[in-house]
Amino acid sequence: MQSWQELLRKKSLASLDALVAKFGPEQFPDLERLRQAALNFEFRISPAMVDLIKSPGDPIWRQYVPDLQELEVGDGLVDSLAEDAHSPVPNITHRYPDRALFLVSPVCASYCRFCTRRRKVGDPEKISMRELESAFRYLEAHSEIRDVIMSGGDPLLLSDRRIDELCRRLRAIPHLEIIRIGSRVPCHLPERVTPELCGILRRYHPLYINTHFNHPDELTPAAVEALGRLADAGIPLGCQTVLLKGVNDDVAVMKLLMQKLLAARVRPYYIYMCDQVAGAEHFRTTVEKGLEIIRALRGWTSGLAVPHFVIDAPGGGGKIPLLPEYVESLTDDAVVLRNYAGRRYVYRQPARQEPILVG
């Protein structure tokens, strides 16, 4: 049986030539220009995602195969979330009061063509523990940080030994209450979620994993089994989904995705508007589309299946929630509400009592 490392190395599509050999030259009429798009951002499609592509242009193809539209920058930004501006030391982004992002790996099993961090990921040279020392010192010195999110790249592509070492160092910092890991490995390379990995992670509770699925087809039997192994290790699982044109900008597709996530013991956490990333403009929908989807989820399926819909504000403003309008009017006497089905209801405000003056 192949190890997950061998599987990733030998079975992935990691060049345009391999892509052409797999799907045929007729799918790539302007191959030389496409090479420029592939040069602008790392290219790899993991075996699990290759197997899911049913036809060129389908939702899986769109997420992972380079496209000439990537050469059209439009309103895209190089560092759309101003992460570098909020990086006090290398590999740390500290934008929120009590939590920090800790970048520990530059590589991914598959490279999403809409990646916010495409300026950083893809370097095959892993970040050494020595290079992370300034990050650990920063976390130790800032007692207001109670929650650290390991991201990258993908932290779960690191070796078991490195993951264990990172978690151990973080757990040794007294004020760090929560460790989180952001990973697409359960989707892209479910074979990586081994019993050994789960055994390591369960030693460092409270530890959470936010994974990332964008389409119901990505919840393959292997992915669901990997998620189950993590859940059985006591790890709460969330999902961060990106709203993408031609992938999941459809009420029925998004509802099915959220329901399948819940069935796999994953709590939908966020639906993000696609960030204003240079080279990813063709993935962006309107905000109205996202509100339409949330309106079609709330009340029409379990509240557990309704994530927060957010824009991660350009320029480093953080995640801003967006909601459909359910409050029609608000006075001292009553709130007029419209429910998920469009019916109007009145909720009476409590009577306001005048303060009693004594003396």
Task: Please give the structural blueprint.
Layout: H1 4-11, H2 16-23, H3 31-40, H4 47-52, H5 59-64, E1 92-96, E2 99-103, H6 133-141, E3 147-151, H7 160-171, E4 178-182, H8 185-188, H9 195-201, E5 207-211, H10 221-232, E6 237-243, H11 251-263, E7 267-273, H12 287-297, E8 308-313, E9 318-321, E10 327-330, E11 334-338, E12 344-348
Parallel strand pairs: 2-3, 3-4, 4-5, 5-6, 6-7, 7-8
Antiparallel strand pairs: 1-2, 8-9, 10-11, 11-12
Helix pairs in contact: 7-9
- Determine the N-to-C terminus distance: 85 Å
- Bulk shape: globular
Radius of gyration: 22 Å
Task: Detail the poorly predicted runs.
Answer: none
- Helix fraction, binned, reads 25-40%
Task: Report the β-strand fraction as a percent range.
Answer: 15-25%
CATH secondary-structure class of the domain at 84-321: Alpha Beta
Would you identify the CATH architecture of the domain at 84-321?
A: Alpha-Beta Barrel
Describe the main β-sheet briefly: 9 strands, mixed
Q: Kindly state the number of beta strands.
A: 12
Helix and strand run? HHHHHEEHEHEHHEHEHEHEEEEE
- What is the residue-averaged pLDDT? 94
| DSSP helical segment count | 12
CATH superfamily of the domain at 84-321: Aldolase class I
CATH topology name of the domain at 84-321: TIM Barrel
Please state the structural category.
alpha/beta
Strand order, largest beta sheet: 1-2-3-4-5-6-7-8-9
